[in-house]
Design a protein that fits this description.
The chain is mainly beta and 143 residues long. The chain is 5% helix and 33% strand.
């Protein structure tokens, strides 16, 4: 049995599945707090928050803005967690990584505030971020 903290953290960890798409998928960023629309002959897969990069303990990765990885459906202030298997129970024991972690989202151009520094739990934080949509080209439409 994991600790109460690791059991709680597991509820916030995403699981990923690699899927094949029958057509092109891309992210569109509004650079404002409004959700962008997909172009004609494209369908919306999800809307989210515009992500630039994540870094922890000297390592990190940036994202290409046209890629679907730059549009996170759910906001999270920290992108990585570390899970190790517990010796006696065989269950994962998960913790968010260090406080040295940096996550860079794109600020919405229409956000106005006297103080741009907000904590992770500031209720206005999500409102200050650029919104995005992940779109897939329809395959049954002739161009």
């Amino acid at each position: 049995q994991g600790s109460d903290q690791s059991d709680m953290i597991k509820n916030f960890l995403s699981r990923c599945t690699v899927c094949e798409s029958p057509s092109t998928v891309l992210a569109i960023h509004s650079f404002t707090s409004s959700d962008p629309s997909c172009p004609d002959k494209w369908e919306e897969l999800w809307v989210g928050f515009s992500l630039m990069m994540g870094r922890d303990r000297g390592g990190g990765t940036g994202t290409r803005l046209e890629g679907h990885g730059s549009c996170l459906r759910y906001f999270t202030p920290q992108l990585s967690a570390r899970c190790v298997m517990s010796g006696s129970s065989g269950q994962p024991n998960c913790h968010f990584m260090s406080q040295d972690q940096t996550t860079a989202y794109i600020k919405a151009s229409d956000w106005e505030s006297e103080d741009d520094r907000m904590g992770f739990f500031d209720p206005n934080l999500k409102k200050s971020l650029s919104r995005c949509a992940v779109c897939r080209r329809l395959t049954n439409v002739h161009v």
